[in-house]
Amino acid sequence: MPAMASITVKKNDGTTDIVYDALAPSAGDGVPAVWRQDTGNAAVPNGMRAQFKMTTGWNGTRTARNGKFDFAYPHVFVNASTGQSESKDRVVFNGTAIIPQGVTQTTIDEACSQLSNLLGSALIKSSLKSGFSPT
Predict the structure, then answer these.
(1) Of 19, 32, 72, 135, which shows the fewest CB atoms inside 10 Å?
(2) Buried b (16+ CB within 10 A) or exposed e, 84-120
(3) Which structural domain, as residue segments, surrounds residue 40?
(4) Contact 92, 72 (CB under 8 A)
(5) Other Cβ atoms closer than 10 A to 45
(6) Do residues 67 and 123 share a domain?
(7) How many alpha carbons lie under 13 Å from residue 15 in its C-beta half-sphere?
(8) What is the pLDDT at residue 44?
(9) If you write DSSP's letter for every residue of 60-76 in order, what string do you get?
(10) In this model, does residue 74 exceed pLDDT 80?
(11) pLDDT at position 41, please?
């Protein structure tokens, strides 16, 4: 099992690092591990910060492990009248991975790496940003 740790990723500029701090490790199947993007957000309340959660567990027949993730990135702005941070909406991503336990670790490793790299590819990023699949 992987050990809980903070995760460093690149911001949209492709250069600047942003850290998702480890908030809570999973306590077992069905309990999410939680990360929050606290870097540079001192004035923003915790509930208005980007958050990533990952939950894992067995499927019903115990033939596969399920990995689920939830990512929420709030739109935060300062109210000109009150000077307070506010959030009216958030960008949300949800996903599920089903990892059969009857395949080789090499197959699992390759599938997970390729999916992660596809999600990080320029074309998929562009499609997500625009809200449209490639045409």
Answers:
(1) 135
(2) eeeeeeeeeeeeebeeeeeeeeeeeeeeeeeeeeeee
(3) 7-97
(4) yes
(5) 13
(6) no
(7) 1
(8) 79
(9) TTSSEEEEEEEEEEEEE
(10) yes
(11) 67
70 close to 53: Cβ distance less than 8 angstroms:
yes
* Sheet with strand 7-10: strands edge to edge: 7-10, 17-24, 33-36, 51-58, 64-78, 85-100
The structural domain count of the chain equals 2
**Position 27 pLDDT exceeds 80:** yes
Structure tokens at 23: 């908030």
Residues 6+ apart with CB under 8 A from 9: 17, 18, 20
Please check whether residues 69 and 121 belong to one and the same domain. Answer: no
Q: Indicate whether 108 and 92 sit together in one domain.
A: no
Asked if residue 76 and residue 24 are part of one domain, the reply reads yes
Mean pLDDT of 11-26: 92
Q: Which phi and psi (to 5°) does residue 27 adopt?
A: -95, 10
Q: Are residues 23 and 89 in the same domain?
A: yes
Q: Which region among 3-7, 12-16, 23-27 has the lowest average model confidence (pLDDT)?
A: 12-16
